[in-house]
Amino acid sequence: MGNEHLFEPVLSSWLKSDGPESDVVISSRVRLARNFKDWNFSGAGLELLERVREVFGNEAFPLLEMGDLSLLQRGMLVERHLISPETMRRHEFGAVMISEDEKASVMFNEEDHIRIQCMAPGLQLEQVLEEAFKLDDAFEGKMPYAFDKRLGYLTTCVTNVGTGLRASVMVHLPGLVATKQLQKTIEAIRRYGFVVRGMYGEGSRPASNIFQISNQVTLGKTELEIVQDLSDVMEQVIMQERVCRTKLKQKFHIVMEDRIFRAYGMLKHSRILAQKEAADAISDLRLGVQMGYIEHIPSQKVNELILFSQPAFLRKFAQRDMNELEEKVIRAAAIREILDTY
After folding, report:
1. Among 47-56, 112-121, 189-198, 280-289, which is the least confidently predicted range?
2. Annotated binding site, which residues?
């Protein structure tokens, strides 16, 4: 099938290294929604996949069809942020192309014909937008898009009409959560036309105090303006998060130190760990690493904990399905193995 590395317990390249502002910003992502000219916006199905193969052949990345993947493999792609939960559900006609370094993926037959996604560590929105444009031009050069001079790119959902751009950053905000400033920050972000969601985007819940901040408006601004506006908002969020962390360390130093090392001890020695329990402890550990309480654990190890404690990866780790208790036992074992040398 190819791309076997996608289903192995290794980090994607965009999680292996730290980027700018990585103490707060885990990653940056842009996604472009497009539909092809003269094709029905829904129901393209297998015919579209056949056309993509015919036009691109081996020029693009290998094409993985959801119908050829197990539920576990599709779940792992979601947990790697390489496909959306909606693509995972499109097991009849959904497909994805993924670059070797996993920084780029192209989804087919999701809500729109095509969704181009590029990612990078830290706050690098303009850079990932540039990479997405390169892929966008490559596809449009051979299969023209549905485009209106007044409205811009035409999409299935009217909220994506215009640029079709969804720019987002994945952020770790334990300081704002602990000081009860998060809701105030979310309300301010909304006033600027951005929205805060869970770790896996729309419909997901926050885990490990990790959130996605993305634009709501796609019409009336250029792609670069949207990205620049989000970068400006992120500068304020980063500053507020760092101020909250500093206050916590100054006012509650011993309490914070105790909380962080308790979390570390739980992760390193527990035999049973529920998903939320693990997520809370991993958040505290990441905070401890970034604030200098714990200096011997690299941030990439914390990224491994975040990814490999998710349900699909646990089943890959165990090589079998499991009940609720078994999942908790395997989660604890996987986390202990990652932290074994620390």
Report:
1. 47-56
2. 27-31, 81, 115, 166-170, 197-202
pTM given for the model:
0.91
3-state secondary structure the chain: CCCHHHHCCCCCHHHHCCCCCCCCEEEEEEEEEECECCCCCCCCHHHHHHHHHHHHCCCCCCEEEHHHCCHHHHHHHHHCCCCCHHHHHCCCCCEEEECCCCCEEEEECCCCCEEEEEEEECCCHHHHHHHHHHHHHHHHHHCCECEECCCEECCCCHHHCECCEEEEEEEECHHHHHCCCHHHHHHHHHHCCEEEEECCECCCCCECCEEEEEECCCCCCCHHHHHHHHHHHHHHHHHHHHHHHHHHHHHCHHHHHHHHHHHHHHHHHCCCCCHHHHHHHHHHHHHHHHCCCCCCCCHHHHHHHHHHCCHHHHHHHHCCCCCHHHHHHHHHHHHHHHCCCC
Residues 302 and 286 sit within 8 Å (Cβ to Cβ): yes
Residue 170 half-sphere exposure toward CB, CA atoms < 13 A: 26
Domain definitions of the chain by residue range? 4-246, 252-338
Integer-rounded Cα radius of gyration of the chain? 21
Q: Which residues are annotated as a binding site for ATP?
A: 27-31, 81, 115, 166-170, 197-202
**Domain 4-246 class in CATH:** alpha beta
pLDDT of residue 206: 63
Instruction: Summarize pLDDT for 41-57 with one digit per residue, the tens.
Output: 876 788 989 988 888 77
Give me 149's structure tokens.
Answer: 């001079």
What phi-psi label fits residue 320: left (phi over 0), alpha (psi between -120 and 50 degrees) or beta?
A: beta
Confidence at 281, pLDDT banded by 50, 70, 90: very high
Whether 136 shows a pLDDT value over 60: the answer reads: yes
Which residue shows structure tokens 């209106």?
Answer: 148
Query: Cα–Cα distances in Å, from 154 out to 4, 32, 146, 158?
Result: 35, 11, 6, 8
